[in-house]
Amino acid sequence: MIVHDKNLLHNAALIDEAENLENGGFISKEQKKIIKKSLPAFNSQSNILVRIGFFLLGSFLHSSICGVIALVGFSGMSDSFLKVSMYLFAIIGFAGAELLASQKYHNHGLDDAFILGGILNLGIAVVFSTEHYYTGIIPAIFIAVASIIAFLRYLHLLSMLVFCFAASAVLFFGMFEIGDLGKTILPFVAMLVSGGFYFFTKQRLKHLKESYYYNGLLLANSFCLILFYLSCNYFVVRELSLELLGVDVLPGQDIPFSFFFYAFTFLVPAVYLVQALRTKDRIMLWISFAAIAFTIFTIRFYYSVLPIEAALTIGGLIMSAIAYFSIQKLKNKESGLTFKPDRITHSTAILNAQTLIVASALGVKPEVKTTSPMDFGGGGFSGGGSGGSF
């Protein structure tokens, strides 16, 4: 299924590790260059700004090819060619991705443009083809299938993100098709589905044999955490009830099951935080902080109990207490999530040890120790030796 050479994928992982070691001071730039020269690798781009530039260039190239085909087609055919042309544009996108993959392009920017262009044009083509009996679920299904295939074949991380959104859209549009009942139970269904997929991806990560899919599964796992919290957040549920069901919440009233949504909004960020500290999960820790901030926003949006100055002061005190608790919890941890300085430091001892490891791995011979004309074996040189005489 993977179009890329697995040896190059393995080399790319080794090069990434070498860059991490170089950034942490374990190896020098010269040693990293030796590693990169000795390992064949993809035509990739690690600089995000340069990658965005190549993405814009690839988008211009893709749109230019599609524009030429559109001009030729519209000059001799009817307007019905528009529906067919979108499928042609999608084929061009995936054909360009295959061509770039054969030229060892991976995470470069050019391949991003053709892969995403193919998925986008396929979705537009399905929208045009189903406009007479249009339901949003049909384009969402096609986009979800195309994006997951693109991830599995090209190991394209953005395609996994597109799949997560498209799969969520399939769920939402499917519940809309049921009617008011589906719209009513949508928060609970989204909560159960996201929770189920979270544990599914968690198990897949634990038993993953091919490391190439790790980042994609980790992205999907994190997306499920976010969707789980947002599915039953009080602000999200109440605003969607107004939009989808036309529920008018009068003063003194509230939405159905409001106590559950209140409790969910408060408890889930706390559970995320405790679980992140317990398992040393840094991504879940970031998500818990974002969820706590959104919980505070939710309450402030509907209930302004205190002036903004008092609310900020109390919030600062609460965050200080959380920080103190976190420091006490993590200060004695030696691995994982810890309050101690990062082990990737410019420590001379660690640097020398890692240098020896890298040198032995690359076959670099250590320097020959020269014999000094001055004898430092005893204690006769102003007490500087190992002997006991001064």
TrEMBL record:
TM helices/strands, residue ranges: 48-72, 84-101, 113-130, 136-155, 160-178, 184-200, 212-237, 257-274, 283-302, 308-327
Source superkingdom: Bacteria
Alphabetized UniProt keyword annotations: Membrane, Transmembrane, Transmembrane helix
Full protein name: Membrane protein DUF2157
Species of origin: Flavobacterium ginsengiterrae
